[in-house]
Amino acid sequence: MTTSKPVPLVAGNWKMNGLYADLDQIKDLVARVDRARPSCELLICPPFTLITPMAEELGDCEIALGAQDCHFKIAGAHTGDVSAEMLADAGCRFVIVGHSERRADHNESSRLVRAKAEAAHRAGLVAIICVGEIEAERDAGEAWEVVDHQLTDSLPDTAGAGNTVIAYEPVWAIGTGRTPTPDDIQEMHGHIRQRLADARFRILYGGSVKATNAADLMAVDNVDGALVGGASLKAIDFDGILDAYR
Ligand code: PGA
Fold first, then answer.
1. Which of 123, 126, 21 is nearest to 64 (CA)?
2. Does the beta carbon of 227 sit less than 6 angstroms from any atom of ligand 1?
3. Atom 3 (ligand 1) nearest CA
4. Residue 227, SS3 per DSSP
């Protein structure tokens, strides 16, 4: 196993939230990060409509820009879809693939997620591949097995620590205010780390991360940052999470 700790990544996933007026939050966030720099990489993934104005707002500051999904083809007759190449062209460096909301709402299989991750790599983007069990699977003691399958089927051969981030997001913890215990997170992240066999992969935790629990969650072994939904929408909340790295 290759060792050497990766630089943590804290990523905000705005989901289907945000209008032009909310770019004020990004202005505010840039100012806060300028005042007190955290020792982690930062990423915001707005909806498609805000990628271009947000790229302008961010300018050459260190906060990276990402998208929440991509199609696996480069271009063509795919109404409503956006390719990884288009995202790179618009200034994205990252794209989330296989978020549980896409797996559930759009019936996305791990095979499709793998194709999307491959497309991200083809376009020079870092793919954030999401995995995580639903509550019934955890209760049945199947969480590891579920995550194992998702990893096996969602990670393309092109995946390496430089172009791929794993986000472990137990579905029952997303948007619920509930989180697994630090012990459960440590166990799952340790398990994922073993599977990846490379200590340089970043393994993010996601699901109800907020300012009040971020320091505890980010201190867990093999947690290399966070994927944050609700608490990434307001600069003051997101900035509170960054305190875990100040
Ligand atoms: P949450 O969402 O922080 O609102 O729980 C996390 C996610 O879905 O990435």
1. 126
2. yes
3. 229
4. strand
